[in-house]
Amino acid sequence: MGFKTGIVGLPNVGKSTLFNALTRTAIAQAENFPFCTIEPNVGEVAVPDERLQKLARIADSKAIIPAKMSFCDIAGLVKGASEGEGLGNKFLANIRECDAIIHVLRCFDDTDVTHVSGSVDPIRDFEIINTELILADLQSVDKQLVGLTKKIKSGDKSLLKLYDVLMKAKGGLERGEAIISTNRTEEDQLLLSDFQFLTLKPVLYVCNVDEASAATGNSYSQKVKDHVMEENSTSINISASIEEEISQIANQEEQDFFLKELGLNRTGLDRLIIEGYKLLDLLTFFTVGPKEARAWTVRTGTTAPKAGSVIHTDFEKGFIRAEVIRCSEYLEFLGEQRAKEEGKLRSEGKGYLVEDGDIIKFLFNV
Question: What confidence tens digit (pLDDT) does each residue in 217-274 have?
Fold first, then answer.
């Protein structure tokens, strides 16, 4: 199961620089002019997980395959994008394909880097992007309501519930509220999930700060933190320029020393993925053996058969049971055999909900 996160923001806020650093590539142009990223660049990054390395050592696995997340660097948006200004239509279409949004806000002063609005004001930038997403969703909702109204008038009463849910969403959008912030039942959520509404996607706000503010933030990032807390969202501080420097350091000890000197205990990539997992409500389970140790990603609340389908559809179709050992117990008893002898291997059925860190062997018959 792949999860794609779109990196969005106004032009020249540091999106492409951050993308280049996160994906350890240089495929995205990071130039000082708007619209340098015309097509969305997509890069996969390994999810850092110390447990996987330890499991592989114990099992003497020949290959180590981490879980991955995809990041999509999307062309900079400008005011009026919902009406097609700049690269608006392309920008909005690319966001629809993503599971979540990383909204990068410029929180640094630099006269050498032009701001599209002429000055640094992350709250203004925040409002510009959010307003365009809300307006785009309002257009989508209105279009859906027109079609539904015709069908309901023709006698299809089964669509009345969906009509009511969309009207509720429209009311919130007209008040300037993202759909994700509107109170909804699980049934409402299910009905809305088919429409790829932009403001229904979870958002993580990234304050791109100067190097000196990477560890503590600054007045700009504090304003953002206070602002997004009002909508129950999260912001983190990252210096894209520092991340770019770190991405060029291959030696782990040198990386750690560099981070320590800056007062940081982990890279922006690690923090982004940790927050991204929380944002998307994800967890990691493992398959471990002499051939490979591998990490897999599923959403919290996933059943064992459904988790098995991430590996192969036959695991779900012919599911018999799942043999499960907690990662901590596998590590404590140095492998499957002793963990099994200590009674730590459990046999779980179709209703078992996978937990973070589970080591699973799927038994199936097709």
Answer: 999 999 999 999 887 889 999 999 898 888 888 788 898 899 998 888 888 888 888 8
Tokens encoding 78: 């400008």
Q: Are strands 4-8 and 100-107 parallel, antiparallel or unpaired?
A: parallel
The secondary structure of 12-71, three-state, reads: CCCHHHHHHHHCCCCCCCCCCCCCCCCCCEEEEEECCCHHHHHHHHHHCCCEEECCEEEE
**Nearest Cα to Cα of residue 208 among 279, 115, 95:** 115
* pLDDT of res. 68: 86
Rounded Cα distance between 88 and 79, Å, is: 9
Whether 178 and 170 have beta carbons less than 8 Å apart is answered as no
Question: Model confidence over 274-287: pLDDT tens digits?
Answer: 888 888 899 999 99
In one-letter notation, the amino acid at residue 352 is Y
Amino acid at 58: I
The percent helix, strand, coil of the chain (3-state, each to 5) is 45, 20, 35
Which of 203, 213, 228, 198 is closest to 268 using CA atoms? Answer: 213
Contact 89, 75 (CB under 8 A): no
User: Can you give the pTM of this predicted structure?
Assistant: 0.84
C-alpha span between 84 and 90 (Å, rounded): 9
The answer to whether the Cα torsion of 164, 170, 176, 179 is positive or negative is: positive
Q: According to DSSP H, which parts of 60-159 are helical?
A: 88-96, 122-153
Radius of gyration of the chain (CA): 23
